Structure formats: C-alpha cells, structure tokens
Amino acid sequence: xxxxxxxxxxxxxxxxxxxxxxxxxxxxxxxxxxxxxxxxxxxxxxxxxxxxxxxxxxxxxxxxxxxxxxxxxxxxxxxxxxxxxxxxxxxxxxxxxxxxxxxxxxxxxxxxxxxxxxxxxxxxxxxxxxxxxxxxxxxxxxxxxxxxxxxxxxxxxxxxxxxxxxxxxxxxxxxxxxxxxxxxxxxxxxxxxxxxxxxxxxxxxxxxxxxxxxxxxxxxxxxxxxxxxxxxxxxxxxxxxxxxxxxxxxxxxxxxxxxxxxxxxxxxxxxxxxxxxxxxxxxxxxxxxxxxxxxxxxxxxxxxxxxxxxxxxxxxxxxxxxxxxxxxxxxxxxxxxxxxxxxxxxxxxxxxxxxxxxxxxxxxxxxxxxxxxxxxxxxxxxxxxxxxx
Length: 389
Ligand code: ADP
Ligand code: MG
What we know:
single chain, 389 residues, alpha+beta, nine-stranded antiparallel β-sheet, five-stranded parallel β-sheet, 27% strand, binds adenosine-5'-diphosphate, binds magnesium ion
C-alpha cells in the first residue's frame, strides 16, 4: 500500500490528469505528470512535471526513479512505455489492458471472442477492402481508424462499396467498418476494480452525443432497472475478462427491442463520469488514486441525480470564454474549466454539473444552461452525421 505522501505518476496531462492530480493531492499524495505539451492542464496542479514524449527512455527512467506507481489518463499512451514501467513498478491499468483498449481491432475482437455483443463489424487490415459479401450487411456503416481516434475523430460515414474503395485508395492504415445502428440511446458504466478483484460500479449514465462528441450526460439513466442491471453486469464481466485493475469505462449502444451492444472501452475515467465528483461519495478520480495506491475502494453511492454538460471550443470566440453568467449564478451548477489555451471547435474546454430532484430535471437544466451560452456557435460543434469522405 502506498500511503499519503507517496508520489503517483500519470502519463498524460489533459483534463483527466488534472482531475486525477486534484483528487490525489486532496488525499495528501504527490503527483508527477508527463505530457509532450508544455501547456497541458494538469501541469497547473501537479507536484512535478516532465514535458516530453511518452516513449522517450529518459522520460520513462525519470518517472521510474521518482514515482512509486504509475497510471495513465489517456488510452493512446504507447503500451510499450507502460510495459517498461511495469518491470519495476505497479502500473494500473496494465499495459495489456491499455493495449487492448487503444486498438479498435484488438478491442472489438476481444469483445466478440469473449461473447459480448458489438455492432456487426469487419476488420480492414492495411487498407484492404473487404469482400462484397462481407461488406453489404455493414452498409450504411461507419469506418473507424483502428488507432488514435477519439471524440468522433478518425471516423467516416460509408454508404456504398464505391465510397469505401474511393476512401481506401492510396491508404495503408487499418480500420474497423461497423454497421451504423439505429440507436434508441447511449449509455456508459464507469467502474473501479482493485488489485484484489474488488469491484465498485457507478450507476449507469445516459449520454447524448452530437457529432461523435459527448454533449450531455445524466444519472441515473432513465431506463428500467433490469436493463441498467444488464449493463452493469456486462461491464463487470468485461473487467473480469481483462483482469482489469483501475478505472474502466464501458460505452453501450441501445437499439430497438432492448438490444444492447458494447460500443467501446476506455481504460481510464470517462467524461460521462465527471459528475461523480459532485454527486457521489467518492469520485472516479478518487477511485483511480485508491486502486493505484492499493487502498480499498470507496463508495460509489449516488447522493443526488445529476447532469453534466460539456463546454466545447466553439463556444470560445476570439479565444474568449462564452458568457458564463447564467452558469455562475445557478445555485446548483458547478463549473469546471480546464485552463486550455487554444480553443478549437470540438475541443473539450470544460464542463459543468448540475444537480436536481430527478435526472430528467437535471438534464433539462443542463440543456437550458448550454443553450444560454451561445446557440449560434454551438451549432458548429453539433452536426448530426460523421463526415462523408
Ligand atoms: P470515439 O472514440 O470517438 O468516442 P465511438 O466509437 O464511441 O468513438 O463513436 C462516437 C459516437 O459516434 C458514438 O458515441 C455514437 O454516437 C456514434 N457512433 C459510433 N459508432 C456507431 C454505430 N455503429 N452506429 C451508430 N452510431 C455510432
Ligand atoms: Mg466513444
């Protein structure tokens, strides 16, 4: 067990690293953050910073020298870097778990092999076209790059065989082509699993996306108990199959007839779990600290229905924040700004949470607060479909 005062390392200094560092600091731990970007948000609050690439041997040696245990806030950290640190240190989640989650081909194949239902998909290795027989049932589909995609980036809508061949011409990358499902809803489960296998699940969150980016998330999800129990059971059993240690997020698609599909996994806290800071006994970041330090998990109990709204870059005009008056005046809303210097459309600049008597009421408040920020600029972020090549 690593006691308060110990140094915890985190690869990645984005908002998740920032919130991890704040949770760690509150419990008396020190943090070391690595990020190639000198302006990374977590650098504002950590005890030690390293600006450099995640795969640089000098960077990794410094992390190994300074830290007692290491985690990641970012699934695209090279798994080999985590494997290097694992030789001498506690690393949670493990390099193996991160390797599975950072490659859509490995991730989807793992899920299918373990019997978890995913949207029908085909693997396209090195830009090779699938056979017409394989392709037809997947159209219209969504082509997703196997690596480095996030927030809808690295995704293209594909309507025909011809469109796919045109897209793949001259490309050598690997992709997953997934059938586009008619979704009734999107949901997520965040859980923490300790070194001894103890697992704690947060309630199912109901997520509204726009242009592939999370827009509003509300808890508890407005679905019947047996359906949310199914999601929780699937998430728990995925963590078990991966022998996962750390905070794991599982995204779900729900289609007509209560058909449930696992969309994707994130080997870290999740945007849809930010509400846990304000509305649960222990937050997803508290649990990340606890698992890493080898402490017992804390309670995931929900103290109040809550909704979260993301503040995306297009709300920033000429690098100035949107008018935040309504948000700041609202007695049950809490604002989080990540301190990012360069607002870009679609970039997550901050979020807010709002509590209410019910999830529906909290969600309505979140939508109202978002609409007041700047309806015109918001539409830049919020299209409906992924771009067509
Ligand atoms: P990311 O890593 O960018 O979050 P996802 O695979 O989760 O990638 O896709 C982002 C969003 O795009 C999803 O939350 C969903 O709204 C939409 N989407 C992705 N795949 C499908 C699909 N097969 N059918 C319908 N919608 C999808
Ligand atoms: Mg996703």
